[in-house]
Amino acid sequence: MRRKRGAALAAIAMAGVLTLAACAKDSGDNSAAGDGGESGGDCVTAAAPPRAEASSQKREESADVDASDLKVGLAYDVGGRGDASFNDAAAAGVDKAVEEMGVSDTTESTAAGTESEDAKQQRLTQMAREGYDPIIAVGFAYADALKAVAPKFPDTHFAIVDDDSVEAKNVTPLVFAEEEGSFLAGVAAVYKSENCHVGFVGGVDTPLIKKFEAGFVQGAKAVSDKVKVEVDYLTPAGDISGFNDPSKGNVVGKSQIGKGADVLYHAAGASGRGVFEAAKDADALAIGVDSDQYNQKTVAEVKDVIMTSMLKRVDVAVYDYIRAVAEDDLDSLPERFDLEVDGVGYSTSGGKVDDITEILDGYKAQIVAGEIKVSATP
């Protein structure tokens, strides 16, 4: 069931956000970045947004939460721990709960790329029968399995990442505003593109991944009326192998670069490694997703091309969910993890976007204030 936005998560403060200055075209002055960074060459045609004041508030966390009586089950999507993407982010949230809240026991299991719904149901059922509570299903692919399993274990807490279709009292959706974080990725891509030509590589053609595409394209076009955007998906809906096929990611990445794109943004799970490799081979840039991929060991050999990552804070959502279960306060969770609660955002590791952080934060402030409405569909 959907949860109310909790007051425990701080809002972002901002100032000077009264108009949609970011979307006003500046045809006569390419110094749109103002004092905050590079102009993006001739590609940027929009005036820079008003600067956002840094918030003095910080996200609050309950002190000294004791979760030692919890046994946490983690059911991964394809790729599992080590995918350098959202499975790893979920794992990080559980690992933090073990370290900081004393979770006594954890178990994890990974879905196969071609497994049946029965296999997913069996995975969740086995965890529940073994006394794991809460159980966290990582990915929308578990929705049907959870609809079947959760009613059989009404005293077990379940959560599902990236889906809010399961109507059950013991199921909590952990959903995100991927389009808002992807909007900032699109802005960053244009500012760093030398060719005024960028690309999006989606893993599987699903409504969820369409949100990444929609935000990225909208962000790119909000700052440039000249930019060209390539869009490709590795597999169609129903074929989830697109999230775990680096070789296919490499082929599609090379294709987009061959067409002129010099900054590629992927939302393709473990397949993103292939996109990074394509960028490295062509001396292009890339944008990671979900985790701060610049710091992921599994892509360390290609990290120099990762200019930023769109952070989807699955780790925060998972950690907060476990804490809420321990405190018996699920209503403290936000309805959606968005920019306002830092549920999505961007990374600065590697320093490649340091010169445009004021611009990115300005757009972030406008989205939080409602001055910019980001569409969840292309």
TrEMBL record:
It is a lipid-anchor. Residues 104-114 have a biased composition (Low complexity). Residues 1-24 form the signal peptide. GO terms for cellular component: plasma membrane. InterPro entries: BMP_lipoprotein, Peripla_BP_I, PnrA-like. Keywords: Cell membrane, Lipoprotein, Membrane, Signal. Residues 27-67, 102-121 are annotated as: Disordered. The keyword Cell inner membrane does not apply. Residues 76-375 form the ABC transporter substrate-binding protein PnrA-like domain. It comes from the Bacteria. Pfam families: Bmp. The keyword Lyase does not apply. Belongs to the BMP lipoprotein family. This is Putative ABC-type transport system, periplasmic component/surface lipoprotein.
